[in-house]
C-alpha cells in the first residue's frame, strides 16, 4: 500500500483471526437462528430484542452477525424449508396413506422449525417468500395425493389441489393447537392429516399400529 502523504510503500499489518474466534462466530450465528426460530414460532412478529434475549446476546452483538431482522427471518425460512423439502423428497412409500402419515410424522420431528414456518406463513410480510421456499414440499404432497386418489387410497370427492391445500392447512392448525412436548403430539398430527385424507379415526389408528415407527420418538 502507498502512503499518499510520503509516497513510500508500506506494508499493512494483518491481524490473524484465530480458529476459536471463527468457531465462536459460527456458534453465535447458529444460536441466533435457533433463538429466532423459537421466538418466531411463538410470535411471527418477534422483535430483534426478544430474539437477542433468547440467544443470550446483546442487540449490538446480534447486529454483528445480521444486518437486520429481515435477514434473520430469511435464514429461518431457508433453514426450515431446506429441512422440510429434504424430508418430503425422502418419503417414497408405495401406499399414499402411509406416505402422508410418514411425511406428517417426520415433519413433526422438526417441531420448532414447523412452528416457525407455520407462523411465518400466516405473516403477510413473508407469505410469498415462505411459499416459494416450500414449493418442493407442496409439489411432493400434490404428487402423493394424485397417486393416492388414482389408486383409491385417498378420498376422491375433492380435486387433488384442494385436498393438498386442506392437508397443508390441517398440519398448520395442528402445529398451532397441539403442545409439541406432548407424548401424543405426533400421533395426533398424523391422525389429523389422515382424517382429512379420507380415513376414519379407527383406520388411522390401525395404520399407525401397522407402522409403529411412525410414532417412535
Which structural traits does this protein have?
mainly alpha; Tetracycline Repressor, domain 2; 68% helix
Give a brief description.
This protein is mainly α and 217 residues long.
Question: Quick one: CATH superfamily of the domain at 74-214?
Answer: Tetracycline Repressor, domain 2
Order of helices and strands: HHHHHHHHHHH
- Uncertain segments: none
Number of helices: 11
Just name the CATH architecture of the domain at 74-214.
Orthogonal Bundle
Q: What is the global morphology? A: elongated
Please state the CA-atom Rg, rounded to the nearest Å.
23 Å
**Biggest sheet character:** none
Query: How many E strands?
Result: 0
CATH topology of the domain at 74-214: Tetracycline Repressor, domain 2
Q: Mean of the pLDDT scores?
A: 83
Multimerization state? single chain
CATH top level of the domain at 74-214 is Mainly Alpha
Q: Report the structural category.
A: mainly alpha
Domain HTH tetR-type: 26-84
GO molecular function, one term: transcription cis-regulatory region binding
InterPro entries: Homeodomain-like_sf, HTH-type_TetR-like_transc_reg, HTH_TetR, Tet_transcr_reg_TetR-rel_C_sf
Protein name: Transcriptional regulator, TetR family
